[in-house]
Every structure is written in C-alpha cells, then in structure tokens.
Amino acid sequence: MASKKVKTVRVNLLEKPYVVPLGAFVKNAAITAGWVGQNQRVEPVKNIISMINSYVGGAILAVASDGSVYRALRTNGLSLIKLASDGYMFGFVLDLEDNGKKKALAISGPSYTEYSSGTLVHDKFNGQYMTRGAIINGRLFGVDFVNQFVLKWSGKNGWNDWTEGTTDSGRFVFDSARGFIKDVFEMHGDIVLVFEFGVARVSVGGNPETFKVIDKQNLPYYYPFTAVAAENYVYFMTEDGLLRYGDNRVNRVEGLISDDATEATSGFLWMGRYYFLCARSRSLKRNIMYVYDILSESYQMIDIPAYFAYYDLDSVIAYTTTTMYRVRNAYSGWRYGVLSQNVNFGTTGRKLATYLEVDCDSDVSVSIDNGRYTRTFSNPPKKLRVDMRGEKFTVKFEGSTGSVRSAYLTAEVPA
User: What is the pLDDT of residue 40?
Assistant: First the structure.
C-alpha cells in the first residue's frame, strides 16, 4: 500500500495575517517589549470624555458626559472622586499656565473647575457653552456648542474674560464644507482645527489680532476625541486610518492601527511619544487599545476593552464601563503576550507540525497549541522539533524586556 504524499510548508508567524500583538510592539515582522494590563476592579466611572494630569497641582481632573467633574491624585489615577455635577453633556480639560502658575482647568457647560497645588476652585464660566478648546497665547480658543462652525476666543485678560470688543473676545465663522469643528490645537503659534471631514490651519498676528486661514484640506470622517499634538504634527484617527498633519500636509500612518482599528472613541499622548487609541479591532471583532510609538514608528495592541485611557504618575489607566485597568511598561517587571492567529498552512484536515524556529532573547517563552494540548518552551533553541498533529495551531510568545526577531513554523501537509 502506497504511503500518502506530503509536502513541507513553512510560514512566518510574525507577518499578517498570523500575528495578533496583544501587548508588545510589532514592526517589520519583529516583536519588541511592550505593555501589559492588570485588572484592578474599583467603582466604575462611566463615560469619561476628557482628562488632564496637572503636574504642579499633583492631581488629575476629569469630566464625564453627564457633566460631572472628578479629581484623582496623580499617584492613584484609579480613585476618582466626584467634585461637582452641575456641568453639561460635554466638556473638556486643559493644562494651562496663569500668571506663572500651572493649573488644571475643566470646563463643562456653565461652570469651570480649577485645580492647582492643592487649591480647588469651582465657579461660573463667563463664556458660552463650548465643546472643545485650547489655550493659545493666554487666551481660550473654543468651539461654540450651539453653532459648531464657530471658533471663539476669550479676551486679553485670560481664559475667562469674555468682554466683547476689537481687542477683546471674538469669533470666526467657518463654512460648512468640512462639517463641524471637533478639536482645537496650538502649533507653532498657529491654530490647527480638526473638523468632521477636514483640517485647517489659522495664523494669528498683529495688534489688534487678526486671523487668517492659511491651509485647509478635506479628509475622511474624523473620530472625535482622538487627536493629539506631538512634535511638529497633529495625529488623529479617521475612517481611513491614523493620519498626521504638519507642514500643511496630511500623511497616513501606515501599519496595524490604520489597517485594523475602526470606531475609535478616544486617544491621548503619553510621554510625548506613545499614542494610545481606544477603538474596535476589525480582526478581533471587539474593542481593544492600540499603542503607536511615534519615534520608532512601531505599534501594538493591548487586549483591554477600553473606551477611554489616560495616565497617573507612572502608568496608563484604561477605563471600561465596568472596570479600570492599570497598564505599565513591561520594563517595570510586567510581561507581555503575543498570540498568533490560527495557522492551518493553507489546507484543511490534520497535518504534522514538525519544526519551530525562533530567534529571540533568553527571557522569552514560546507555547504552541494544537487544539488538544499545549507545549511550552522557555528560552527555546533557534530550531526545535515539536512533532504535534492537528488541523490548526496557535503560537504564543511571552516575555518582559526580551524581543522576538523572527519566528517560523513548519509542517508536513497532504500534497
């Protein structure tokens, strides 16, 4: 009786569609140390929409979509304490310097909350309701809630001076071609506005100040609350992926986030280089966190269903509707995990996985699962014999500071 003919197939586990980087940076088919999350169940705070970390004040201010304002100590961002509930269904939080003193400022509807060096002030906001805003040259530039084509700015005496006049507060009305204004940023003394379907740059100069639109572009739909300013760019998430705007140009940031993320809910910048995004994964079909390292242009996924994330003194805090998570860099002793997708070598039926080839650092462990049992190898040799039969296989890499430079799985399949 003739034996069945087989052929040898070798797949790269670190290339799409196999790799699912749940906690480590992945770039050019290599894994580097990343982040992991620890579930710390506390009293949940739903629908946080904006947050700022006050370095001088030593606290975090946050606003929720129901108008509530919260405070937390920088050393424990998980413990949010409600300060006020007289806001509105939108709000934003800013870090500013007022008369040489740094403060955290929350504006929500008719009220504001200011925190600095242990001093808390909650009072009436003199301006009209705003959806988003930024402090530029001591003035508050904000988006009018009633007419979101309008950019407003405060007077010469600061963010709560709304005296009208030629040199005082004012307004600028944009056309409707790019939809509502959704976010405001400062870039080299200019104003960058992110619209529902575009971006614009406005110069400010002269005495009295004059405003001139120096660039405007139409773009795919922008997911609100995802824009951040980093280096010489504004990064923001759209239906066409992660974009960056600078030098009057828009570029798409290629890679996993742009290809996989959709329905983004929030984004923020940590340590000036890590862009965190909460969004839905097309491949995993659930909400997760993405991280993009702006300096190295690498990316990762963290398997936490967060809708909003920010940070306290030493770690990132991820908020879900039921739980808050603390996420730390793996270099502080936490471990990451990277799981491959199911590998069937392009065929149905059972096959024999023969060899696993891994080039990795000594602290990395590798597990291979055939659907019935798992084999785990710590500090594996560069090529090892596995001899596992199954229809499909998954491979998981775990480590802390170690990297995985390459990984291949070979099997004998029916010819």
Answer: 47
